[in-house]
Design brief:
Number of helices: 7
Strand content: 15-25%
Number of strands: 6
Shape: globular
Helix content: 25-40%
Length: 213
Amino acid sequence: MSELQDTPAFKPMAERFRGYLPVVVDVETGGFDWNKHALLEIAAVPIELDEHGRYVPGEVVSAHIEPAPGTSIDPKSLEVTGIKVDHPLRGALPEREGLDKIFAPIRAAAKKHGCQRAILVGHNAHFDLNFLNAAVNRVQHKRNPFHPFSVFDTVTMAGMAYGQTVLARAVYAAGLEWDQREAHSAIYDAERTAQLFCIIANAWPMPALSPSV
């Protein structure tokens, strides 16, 4: 049992989302079609609980990914992201190794909180999930910690909370800063999305302990 699970003041994570651990994910890609365009960057931020039972972003994990064989890149996408695919210092990993780097700490975080698996949180979350699932299928990865189709989408959450659906505008509405120069980096977007998720989720009434606890 972790310290969070032993603390009686609030529900542990395993009892809040039907046994799922929210993990914010952002991907940068070579286009919009997950069936043909390459996965180029991925970052993930597990959601943790502080000593008061409030949601806080955990430690980010990220990987630059080599374009998988058979995938393509639309040059217009690189103009948006600024990714230099062939840069010698990019440190890109083959797709399988990149997924392993991301999945291992997510599985560890889920185990820490007593959760059965992770659920992807994203801004336009199904975009990220579809690219992730496509990569998993290409390498036949057997230890994907994410639910295969369910997500939490901060577009919906921010739309309800602030009337904003664009990530930068939602971040501003939540009282956070947004650096457009850093945007379209998987790490930056994942970190800001995680902060946004936590602010909105923490504004919701705290789950009460069940009588059986």
